[in-house]
């Protein structure tokens, strides 16, 4: 496959030159739109190409999502064949690709789950909230279990409810006030412990605070606890090994559902098919998206343990059914592509590859980047990695935002696209990496070399300011 994937260079130039002012870009808005924006025209493996013919190593896999890599043309053929056979039918009946995909996910989870399809990670978590609340009404009559306990600096989506569940004040403040159904607790951001404790000697106090919060709010008011196994947008926060098992134990103690957000973590990203499997926990509700189809088409799912699903069984007159409708959920073409996407992951052992390549990348990053005093911490699992930048390691004062953005820009200028944490004023100083799981050792070496150069440039700028 040609990386350009355009009929000729002149056609690509016309794309760049045409007026793009009517396109609303949610991440680059207002005055920034007056500048020339990159127009991506083709991609293969871990590489993308823009309309000018420049190529870039995409160390973010789009938005943490192109897990099997770009350019899998067989998926286009599968989508075309399915659309010719049957392009669409709603959830009032099942279609074969959706049934196959549901069984795939169920088996990957151990065979004790039902799967409800939606279109995005935000919708998957939103449906999870609704299922948790309705389940609580069925199972605890007379109680009002409507609250979800989440963590500060969490990210669970961009709908009103998922923004409220998320703990990023900078993202949700424009839409406040909320009604108080989402209650937040400190997160396991161990490099910057919110409780001022020392990692390894803290007794996992942040997990214990979940129990304190359930008790304080009243167990009869709490429906669920939602966690992202490895918090992504805050800067890749990997919890202590005891954390998630302790959270699960607390949920079981108070009959509170455990809702696990695997939208970014899932489908091989962390070195296992699902990140929660590193810690042996068993979610009651799980949200998946992104890697389920490696972003080749929109599809996502809310995965529910059979024990929870059975609460919704009953006669029509009982109205126990889940009050949830989605027009495009389980779209046949998207589901067919997702089925093949997962087959590719298993055939090519991409979760295992993420584990081994992630270890190689992590070792190289630590070997090269800690020579710069601005490298505070390097953490992650598999091919989900964060590099936190500080003014100096002793104070841990976060690096100036302009310098952090300068690292991102320098990397791009040298042909590598990296991300930056979105935690707002408190946690926006981490360079984040989430490359396709097919990234090669040579590409990892390039990524390390370019980051090394970008950090060296940042240090030089700091010296120039002094």
Automatic annotation (TrEMBL):
Gene3D superfamilies: Aspartate Aminotransferase, domain 1, Type I PLP-dependent aspartate aminotransferase-like (Major domain)
One Gene Ontology MF term: transaminase activity
Alphabetically ordered keywords of this record: Aminotransferase, Pyridoxal phosphate, Transferase
Cofactor or coenzyme needed: pyridoxal 5'-phosphate
Taxonomic superkingdom: Bacteria
CDD domains in alphabetical order: OAT_like
SUPFAM superfamilies hit by this protein: PLP-dependent transferases (SSF53383)
Alphabetized Pfam families for the sequence: Aminotran_3
InterPro entries according to UniProt: Aminotrans_3, Aminotrans_3_PPA_site, PyrdxlP-dep_Trfase, PyrdxlP-dep_Trfase_major, PyrdxlP-dep_Trfase_small
Family: Belongs to the class-III pyridoxal-phosphate-dependent aminotransferase family.
PANTHER family: AMINOTRANSFERASE, AMINOTRANSFERASE CLASS-III
The protein's name in its UniProt record: Aminotransferase
Species of provenance: Paracraurococcus lichenis
């Amino acid at each position: 496959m040609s990386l350009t994937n355009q009929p000729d260079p002149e056609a690509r130039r016309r794309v760049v030159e045409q007026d793009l002012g009517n396109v609303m870009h949610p991440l680059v808005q207002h005055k920034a739109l007056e500048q020339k924006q990159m127009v991506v025209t083709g991609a293969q493996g871990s590489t993308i190409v823009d309309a000018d013919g420049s190529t870039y190593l995409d160390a973010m896999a789009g938005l943490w999502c192109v897990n099997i890599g770009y350019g899998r043309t067989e998926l286009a053929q599968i989508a075309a064949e399915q659309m010719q056979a049957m392009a669409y039918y709603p959830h009032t009946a099942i279609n074969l690709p959706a049934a196959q995909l549901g069984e795939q996910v169920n088996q990957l989870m151990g065979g004790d789950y039902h799967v409800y399809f939606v279109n995005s990670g935000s919708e998957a978590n939103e449906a999870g909230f609704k299922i948790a609340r309705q389940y609580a009404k069925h199972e605890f009559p007379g109680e009002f279990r409507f609250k979800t306990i989440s963590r500060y600096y969490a990210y669970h989506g961009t709908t009103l409810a998922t923004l409220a569940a998320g703990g990023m004040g900078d993202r949700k403040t424009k839409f406040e006030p909320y009604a108080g159904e989402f209650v937040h607790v400190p997160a396991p951001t161990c490099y910057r412990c919110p409780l001022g404790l020392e990692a390894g000697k803290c007794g996992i106090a942040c997990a214990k605070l979940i129990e304190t919060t359930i008790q304080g709010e009243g167990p009869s008011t709490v429906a669920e606890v939602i966690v992202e196994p490895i918090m992504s947008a805050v800067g890749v926060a990997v919890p202590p090994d005891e954390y998630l098992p302790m959270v699960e134990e607390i949920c079981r103690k108070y009959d509170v559902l455990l809702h696990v957000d695997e939208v970014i973590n899932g489908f091989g990203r962390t070195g296992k098919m699902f990140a929660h499997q590193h810690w042996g926990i068993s979610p009651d509700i799980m949200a998946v998206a992104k890697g389920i189809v490696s972003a080749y088409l929109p599809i996502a799912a809310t995965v529910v343990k059979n024990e929870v699903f059975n609460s919704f069984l009953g006669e029509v007159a009982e109205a126990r059914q889940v009050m949830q409708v989605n027009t495009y959920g389980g779209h046949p073409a998207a589901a067919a592509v997702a089925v093949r996407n997962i087959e590719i992951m298993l055939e090519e052992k991409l979760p295992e590859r993420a584990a081994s390549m992630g270890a190689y990348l992590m070792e190289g990053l630590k070997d090269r980047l800690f020579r710069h005093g601005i490298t505070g911490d390097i953490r992650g699992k598999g091919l989900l990695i964060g590099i936190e930048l500080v003014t100096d390691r002793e104070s841990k004062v976060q690096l100036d935002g302009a310098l952090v953005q300068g690292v991102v820009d320098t990397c791009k200028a040298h042909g590598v696209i990296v991300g930056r944490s979105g935690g707002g004023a408190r946690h926006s100083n981490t360079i984040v990496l989430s490359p396709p799981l097919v990234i090669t050792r040579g590409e990892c070496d390039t990524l390390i070399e370019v980051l090394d150069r970008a950090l060296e440039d940042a240090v030089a700028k700091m010296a120039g300011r002094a």
